[in-house]
C-alpha cells in the first residue's frame, strides 16, 4: 500500500542493510515452504479421491506430477505479469 | 515521495521501521499468492491431461492477472477515499 | 482463552507499555492488510468470471464496488456485535 | 483472577510474557476474521445487487455472530473439560 | 525439508537450548489456538445453517459436539500415523 | 548429514539459525495441519451422527495420511530435481 515504508530504510548504515537482507531471505524461505505446502494440498485434492488402497496408484502419481508442473509454470507466468504491472505502477507514480 | 529518506521520521525507531517493512513485504507476498491461487483455480483445467499450459489457459492467466490487479486497485482507491467510515 | 495473559502485563513500567502499544499497532497494520487482501480475493471471485478480455468490464466494476461496500458494512456490524459479546463475557466473569 | 497481577509469575521472563500476549491477540484477531468471513458467506447474497445490507441480511448477521460465539464457547468448554484426552 | 537445519543447533550452550524450548512452546501455543479456531469454524459451518433464531438449537449443539469429538479423535489418529511416517523417513535416511 | 554439527556453519549467526529453525518447524506444523484438514474432509461423514470414528472412516484416514505423505515426497523430489527452473 504505502510504498514509502521501504523507502524509509534507504541510506541506512551497512549493518542495517545486512539485517534487511537477512529478513528478506527468511521471508523468501518461509514463502517457498508455504507454496510447497499449498501445492501439495492442491494436487492431492485434485488427483487423489480413492482410498481403497494405501499406496498411490500410477494414474494418481502422473496426475500429481502434471498438476505440480502446471502450477509451477503458472506461477512463473503470473510472476512475470505481476512484475510488469508492478513496474508500470512504479513508473506511473 | 518522502522528503528526508536518508533518516527516519521522528518518533519511529529502527525496530519499528524494520517491523513495518516486514509487514509490507508480507502483504505483497500474500497478494501474489492469493492472485496465483485464484487465477489457477479460474483458468487451469483440473483434469491435468498434460503438464504444459495450453494457449487458452495462458491467455486466461494473463487476463486474470490483469483483472485481479485492477480489482486490487479499485478496492484500494475506495478504501483510501473513505478512510475511517463512520 | 486465558484472559490473564494480558493482565500479567498490568503495572509494568512505562517502557513496557510503549513496547505493548507498538506491538498492537503492528498487529493492527498486519491485520488490516490481510483483510484488504481477503476482501480483494472474495470480490474478485464473486464478480469476475469472464476472461475473454483484459480489462474490467463496467458491470464487473460495479459488482466489485458493491461487494466491497457490503463487506465493510458487514465487518462494522460484526465488530459491534462481537464487542458486545466480549463485554458481556467480561462482566459475567 | 491473578493474585499478583502487578508482577510476573516466577519463571516467566518479560520476552515470554510479550510473546504470550502477542499470541493471545493474534488468536482474537483470527477468531474475529473467521467469524466475519463465515457469516458473510452464510448471510450475504453473492449477487451484490446493491451496496447496502438489507433487513434480512442484517438480522441473519446478528444471529450468525451470536451462534458462532456460542459454538466457540461450547467447544472451548469441551476442550478445557477434557484436557489431555487419552 | 532440510533436516540439518535443526541439527545445526545441537551442542550449543544451555542458554540457547532454553531459548529453543521457549520458541517451541510459543509455536505449540499458537498452533493449538489456531487449531481451536479452525475447529470452531468447521463445526459451525457443517452444523449451523438456520438463522431464524438467535440461540443455538439442541440438535445444532449436539452436532457441534460430535463434530468436535470426531475431529479430535481424527487429529490424534493422524498424529500417530504422521509420527510413524516421520520415523520411517528418519531411519531410512 | 552435517559434518560439524557442534558449531554453526560460517557466515550464519545465531539469530539466523534460530530463525531458520523456527521457519522449519512452522513448515512441519503447517504440513500436519493441511494433511489433517484434507483427510478429515475426504474421509469423515459430515452428518456427524455419532462422536466416534467408524471402521470405514478409520481405514480411510490411514490410507489418506499415507497417500498425502507420498504426494508430499513426490512433489518434494520433483522440486529438488528441477532446482531453479529456467
TrEMBL record, chains A, C, E:
It comes from the Eukaryota. Belongs to the small Tim family. Heterohexamer; composed of 3 copies of TIM9 and 3 copies of TIM10, named soluble 70 kDa complex. The complex associates with the TIM22 component of the TIM22 complex. Interacts with multi-pass transmembrane proteins in transit. The keyword Membrane applies. The twin CX3C motif contains 4 conserved Cys residues that form 2 disulfide bonds in the mitochondrial intermembrane space. This is Mitochondrial import inner membrane translocase subunit. Residues 23-84 form the Tim10-like domain. InterPro entries: Mito_inner_translocase_sub, Tim10-like, Tim10-like_dom_sf. GO terms for biological process: protein transport. GO terms for molecular function: metal ion binding. It is found in: Mitochondrion inner membrane. Its main location: mitochondrion. Mitochondrial intermembrane chaperone that participates in the import and insertion of multi-pass transmembrane proteins into the mitochondrial inner membrane. May also be required for the transfer of beta-barrel precursors from the TOM complex to the sorting and assembly machinery (SAM complex) of the outer membrane. Acts as a chaperone-like protein that protects the hydrophobic precursors from aggregation and guide them through the mitochondrial intermembrane space. Mitochondrial intermembrane chaperone that participates in the import and insertion of some multi-pass transmembrane proteins into the mitochondrial inner membrane. Also required for the transfer of beta-barrel precursors from the TOM complex to the sorting and assembly machinery (SAM complex) of the outer membrane. Acts as a chaperone-like protein that protects the hydrophobic precursors from aggregation and guide them through the mitochondrial intermembrane space. GO terms for cellular component: mitochondrial inner membrane. Keywords: Chaperone, Disulfide bond, Membrane, Metal-binding, Mitochondrion, Mitochondrion inner membrane, Protein transport, Translocation, Transport, Zinc. It is a peripheral membrane protein. The keyword Zinc applies. It comes from Erythroxylum novogranatense.
UniProtKB/TrEMBL annotation, chains B, D, F:
Pfam families: zf-Tim10_DDP. One of its GO terms (molecular function) is metal ion binding. Signal peptide: none annotated. The twin CX3C motif contains 4 conserved Cys residues that form 2 disulfide bonds in the mitochondrial intermembrane space. GO terms for biological process: protein insertion into mitochondrial inner membrane; protein transport. The keyword Metal-binding applies. It is a peripheral membrane protein. Heterohexamer. One of its GO terms (cellular component) is mitochondrial inner membrane. Residues 18-80 form the Tim10-like domain. It is found in: Mitochondrion inner membrane. This is Mitochondrial import inner membrane translocase subunit. Belongs to the small Tim family. Mitochondrial intermembrane chaperone that participates in the import and insertion of some multi-pass transmembrane proteins into the mitochondrial inner membrane. Also required for the transfer of beta-barrel precursors from the TOM complex to the sorting and assembly machinery (SAM complex) of the outer membrane. Acts as a chaperone-like protein that protects the hydrophobic precursors from aggregation and guide them through the mitochondrial intermembrane space. InterPro entries: Tim10-like, Tim10-like_dom_sf. Keywords: Chaperone, Disulfide bond, Membrane, Metal-binding, Mitochondrion, Mitochondrion inner membrane, Protein transport, Translocation, Transport, Zinc.
Amino acid at each position: 500500500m504505502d510504498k514509502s515504508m521501504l523507502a524509509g530504510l534507504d541510506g541506512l548504515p551497512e549493518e542495517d542493510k545486512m539485517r534487511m537482507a537477512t529478513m528478506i531471505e527468511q521471508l523468501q524461505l518461509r514463502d517457498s515452504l508455504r507454496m510447497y505446502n499449498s501445492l501439495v494440498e492442491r494436487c492431492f485434492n485434485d488427483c487423489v479421491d480413492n482410498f481403497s488402497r494405501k499406496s498411490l496408484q500410477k494414474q494418481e502419481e502422473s496426475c500429481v506430477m502434471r498438476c505440480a508442473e502446471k502450477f509451477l509454470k503458472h506461477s512463473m507466468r503470473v510472476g512475470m505479469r505481476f512484475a510488469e504491472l508492478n513496474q508500470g505502477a512504479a513508473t506511473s507514480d | 515521495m518522502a522528503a528526508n529518506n536518508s533518516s527516519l521520521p521522528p518518533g519511529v525507531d529502527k525496530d519499528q521501521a524494520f517491523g513495518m517493512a516486514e509487514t509490507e513485504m508480507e502483504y505483497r507476498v500474500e497478494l501474489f499468492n492469493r492472485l496465483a491461487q485464484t487465477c489457477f483455480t479460474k483458468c487451469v483445467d483440473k483434469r491435468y491431461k498434460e503438464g504444459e499450459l495450453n494457449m487458452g489457459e495462458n491467455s486466461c492467466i494473463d487476463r486474470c492477472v490483469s483483472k485481479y490487479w485492477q480489482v486490487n486497485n479499485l478496492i484500494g482507491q475506495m478504501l483510501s477515499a473513505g478512510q475511517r467510515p463512520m
